[in-house]
Each structure stands twice: as structure tokens, then as C-alpha cells.
Amino acid sequence: MTTAGHGSAHPALEPFGLGSLALRNRLAVAPMTRVSAPPDGVPTAQMAEYYGAYAVGGFGLIVTEGIYTDATHSQSYFGQPGLVTAGQIAGWRAVTDSAHRAGAAIVAQLMHAGAISQGNTFGFETIGPSAVAPRGKMMVDYGGTGGPWSAPREMTAHDIDQVVAGFVAAAGNARDAGFDGVEIHGANGYLLDQFLTDYTNLRTDEYGGPVQNRIRLTARVLAAVQEAVGDFPVGVRLSQTKVNDFTYRWSGGETDARVVFEALSEASYLHIASEGRNFIETARFPSGATITGLAREVSRRPVIANGGMHEPAQAADVLAGGHADVLSLGRGALANPDLPQRLSSGEAFDAFDYEMLHPLATLDCAAAWRARRETETGRFPVSASASSTS
């Protein structure tokens, strides 16, 4: 178990303005795949309860799991929710209401799977920047077979236009569903990251070759979404590593990073996933700059740091050192939906247990784990139906 220790003086508990979003603190729930939606992709009451629990627990910001953006190629997993149909919009409205009742802001993460699709209700074909099979294996925790990925069909100019249109439509639907903003998923090996990655993008047109071209689609999506939704906040998530390739780093290192961050400098914020548990050690370039600190410097935008932020001392150092403005937690939040309240009171954090995600990373599996833990410890989880203490 990790001791909170810093108490109410911890800088992560200070309010922060993330663009136009007034957050009650600097703690965010990171986007996490939960593969718990029904086949129609409509969020359920269970999902509203799940997200609401983080709001009741005191988090200032919640970023949803990746949400597919169209009814063709964007879905990555069976059990993934969408933001395409009227029913899906209504389902997400229940989720946003649950978060807002307890005082949290919530943004929708919009994603396109590209070649990293192992379960698509709308068809079997996958698309990508080039006909290159992804590295790694399909993810069993997300319902995959554990076998190799297939090579996608190389995208045409029309395909690219359709992808952009899907992000734009989904962003408008997110606003209608009551979200406080959207986050464009340009990280972790999915479509936009496939364009940025040199070994999956072998194109010779304006989207291939140097990093300035490979980041072009992400920048185009950002600009198109912003044009469509006006002052609605639009962030971008980035990473070097991928769900299917944990060791990858941008081939041009800090030089590439500067190009990427400048290209996305109109975003409301950048959300950067680091490469390991110890953020300060693993997220540095040879020059000594951290990837998030460099993102702040180059983009001149607020930055959310993700990775290892469940360690209070490290989290305080990241904020004090100017490496980030907001801290997002995945595993730490799963284990402690009330982590901000624990940090304030000095109560110890529960350690993350991988059994929460086995045999599948679903809400049902997590609920079964919690039921077993309650029997063992006599402690009961935070509930979205409980009264908010924020």
C-alpha cells in the first residue's frame, strides 16, 4: 500500500483552470478500456455508476474510455461504446449527469482503432496508413484471441476524409450528450498514432515521410473538430509507447517531440502518457527535459501527465517542477475511486491488483473483485449513489 502522507497541503488538491474548464483539483481519471458496453454501443446504467463513483470520490476531471466515432472502421473492441447514434448520445447523457451531480468535469475520449481492431460490430476489414500488420498480439484482457494482427488496407484520400468527418460528428454528439469537452486519442498505437509512427506509416503523400507529415492527420482532425464545435474544449492525448509495442520511442527523439507539440499547439490541452512507473526517470529525453515539460514549453498549453502519479511524492515533484499541470491516474484510480479524498485525509491508498482486470477488463470482473475484497476487509467501495463530499 502507498501512504498518502501529504495531506490537504498536497498541490494536486489545488483548483486549476484547464482552458475553460474550472477543475476543483488537479487530479484526473485516465482513460481506461472497460469493454462493458452492449453490442449496440450504448452506455449502461452500470457505466454511469462507474464514472460517477470517481466524481463522488473527489476527482476533478474524468476522461472516458476510448469511444468509437463512426459506424464503419473505428471500433477497436467488442464491448466498446460509441458516440454515433441517438441512443448512444442518450446513454452518455446519463453518464455525464452522474459525473456532474458529484462535481466533476468529464470529457469524452474519441478514438479510431485503425489497424488495432480486434472486434468491430460493423465489419472485419481494418484500415491504416499503410498495409503493415501491427506489432504484438491481440489483447486477451480486451477480448482478443492473443494471436497476431492482420495487415490493414491502406487508406485512400477518401478514407482519410471520412475519418476526419467521424471525429467531427462524434465531437458534436459529445457536446449534445453533456460532456465538458473531448479528447482526441492520438496515442497508444491506434489510428492517429499509426500515422505518426514511422514503421506503420510508409506513405509517400502529404501524410508520410518526415514527422511534419506524419503528425498532419492528427493536426487536421484537431482543426476540423475545433472549427465545428467552437469554444468547446478539445484536447489531444499522445504517447510514445503503444498497447501493442511498449518499447517504442519516437525515432527523432526530442526533435520529433518539438515538431509534434508545435503542430498541436492549438489544442485546449495535451495529455501525455509516460513510458513507465517512475515518471521522472522514464519520461526524460537525453537533454534532461521531460516529455510533458517539453510539451508545456513548446505548445504553451496546459499538460496532463499520466504514469506513476499514484505516488504522492512523485506527483508533487511533477507539479512543483513544472512538468505538468494536471495528473491523471489509471490503475491508482481503479484501486482507489476516492483517491483525492484519501490524499486530503492522509489515508493510505490501496495497491492496484491485476486481478481486477482478469479474466477480462470489464466492469463485471472488477465488481466481482471488489465483492471478494469487501468480504475479506469489511470495506465497501465508493458509490455514485452516495452523497458527494466535494
Automatic annotation (TrEMBL):
Give the GO molecular function terms.
FMN binding; oxidoreductase activity
Q: Which organism is it from?
A: Nocardia speluncae
**What SUPFAM superfamilies does its record include?**
FMN-linked oxidoreductases
Cited Pfam families: Oxidored_FMN
Annotated protein name in UniProt: NADH:flavin oxidoreductase
**May I ask which residue range the UniProt record assigns to the signal sequence?**
none
Q: Where is the NADH:flavin oxidoreductase/NADH oxidase N-terminal domain?
A: 14-346
Report which superkingdom the organism of origin falls in.
Answer: Bacteria
Q: What is the lineage of its organism?
A: Bacteria, Bacillati, Actinomycetota, Actinomycetes, Mycobacteriales
Q: Which InterPro entries match?
A: Aldolase_TIM (IPR013785), OxRdtase_FMN_N (IPR001155), Oye-like (IPR045247)
Which PANTHER family has this protein been placed in? NADH OXIDOREDUCTASE-RELATED, NADPH DEHYDROGENASE 2-RELATED
